[in-house]
Amino acid sequence: MRARVPVVLHRARGRTAELVTFRGLPDDGEHLACLVPARDPRRTPLARLHSECLTGDVLGSAHCDCGPQLDESLALLARHGGVLLYLRQEGRGIGLYNKLDAYLLQRRDPGTDTFEANRLLGRGADERDYLTAAVMLRTLGLHRVRLLTNNPDKVGQLRAHGIDVTETLPTGVHRTPENTAYLEAKARDGHHLPAHRPDTEVPA
């Protein structure tokens, strides 16, 4: 079952989108899809898998690049249409409170990066699973997508779960003095691809 709620997204330049909720997903998270009508329905749709980040998305924390990536994704969807999956996988799947504990560990020891902090808490460096995302895409009738990401794990997991990722589009650079070490850890330990697109354009 899915329910549609039309909304106007001011962060997506005022475009009207549909918020889609789901029941019967593989996990118990209250995940959400944000659908923006495609400008050219003949194109393979653009998709962004965005893991929830309360501190970055809502509070504007400079510790990470999550908020700017969300804004960038919505700007791209406003331009081209597509879908953003907002996945309730805070802190790479360890949850909000554990993520805040990981922040404290990093503050006490600046040499501890975001992945090592998760491990020191007895959790996986990255516990996110994208089976639910694949089920959401298939439920929406999206079996082929162009994926906006620098994270090869998202690409690999979606393909393993039957989604044809025809193209990977990197996000732009959202570097601040506060998140430089975080971005370097994502590239080094998370094998994220270098972010290099400086604007909100995607190939035609």
From TrEMBL:
InterPro entries per record = GTP_cyclohydro_II, RibA, RibA-like_sf
**GTP cyclohydrolase II domain location:** 16-170
Q: Which Pfam families match?
A: GTP_cyclohydro2
Q: EC number(s) per UniProt?
A: 3.5.4.25
Query: What is the superkingdom listed in this entry's lineage?
Result: Bacteria
Needed co-factor(s): Zn(2+)
Asked if the Swiss-Prot or TrEMBL record annotates the protein with the keyword Hydrolase, the reply is: yes
Keywords (alphabetical) are: GTP-binding, Hydrolase, Metal-binding, Nucleotide-binding, Riboflavin biosynthesis, Zinc
Recorded catalytic activity of this chain's protein = GTP + 4 H2O = 2,5-diamino-6-hydroxy-4-(5-phosphoribosylamino)-pyrimidine + formate + 2 phosphate + 3 H(+)
- Annotated metabolic or biological route of this protein: Cofactor biosynthesis; riboflavin biosynthesis; 5-amino-6-(D-ribitylamino)uracil from GTP: step 1/4
Extract the NCBIfam families matched here. Answer: PRK00393.1
Q: Which PANTHER family match?
A: 3,4-DIHYDROXY-2-BUTANONE 4-PHOSPHATE SYNTHASE, GTP CYCLOHYDROLASE II-RELATED
Query: What is this protein's name?
Result: GTP cyclohydrolase II
Per the UniProt record, the source organism is Streptomyces antibioticus
